[in-house]
Write a structure and sequence with these properties.
With 193 residues, the protein is of the alpha+beta class. The chain has 6 helices and 7 strands.
Length: 193
């Protein structure tokens, strides 16, 4: 069943996923398929099994913030997730070596939008909703160094490149190969009130 409007975030028409039942509903409404689609496209060309995707999102739900958007038919058309840095061990260790605090800082792990709904500022609104839900002052994220769309989107949202912080990421690709690409990191610091 499509989430009732009263269950949606008050600022946007987004669903904040809080329970296993809600994430299962998102899976049934296309979250897994959309995730696979988004990351199989350039510049990533990554391939994930449904089980891998489910594992990612179950982990995000267990300790972080998960936001999805549904279209009028109830299909997932956008997603975003963030977790405490301590939940992403590899990223946490790298972040610590760049003066981030894994005990207090968070990691913006995912954002994606259905190709049919792009260029409508949906990704920007998802990021803004996610940042508002994250209980940390400092949030870092990682993207492929040549992903101009992601870099531009996150710069417009207030993220800044972390000089010298990058990671070589090995991933299976849709063509069957396993290759490595360079990921850069950006940081967002919430204004102090």
């Amino acid at each position: 069943m499509y989430p009732e409007r009263s269950e949606l975030s008050t600022q946007q028409d987004f669903k904040i996923i809080r329970t296993q039942e809600e994430i299962e509903e998102a899976y049934n409404r296309g979250l897994i398929r959309l995730y696979q689609q988004v990351f199989s496209e350039p510049p990533y060309y990554e391939q994930f099994t449904p089980e891998e995707v489910r594992n990612f999102w179950d982990n995000y739900l267990s300790c972080g913030v998960v936001v999805v958007d549904y279209n009028e038919e109830g299909r997932v058309i956008g997603f975003a997730a963030a977790v405490p840095l301590t939940a992403e061990k590899e990223v946490s260790e790298l972040a610590k070596s760049h003066n981030f605090n894994p005990e207090t800082d968070w990691y913006h792990a995912e954002v994606g939008v259905d190709p049919n709904y792009r260029r409508q500022h949906l990704a920007t609104r998802l990021i803004n909703e996610l940042l508002g839900q994250v209980p940390a002052q400092t949030i870092i994220m990682r993207t492929q160094e040549r992903n101009e769309a992601s870099l531009g989107l996150h710069h417009r949202a207030g993220f800044k490149i972390v000089p010298g912080m990058f990671q070589e990421k090995e991933s299976p690709r849709v063509n069957g190969s396993v290759t490595t690409d360079k990921r850069v990191f950006l940081v967002y610091r919430k204004p102090r009130i």
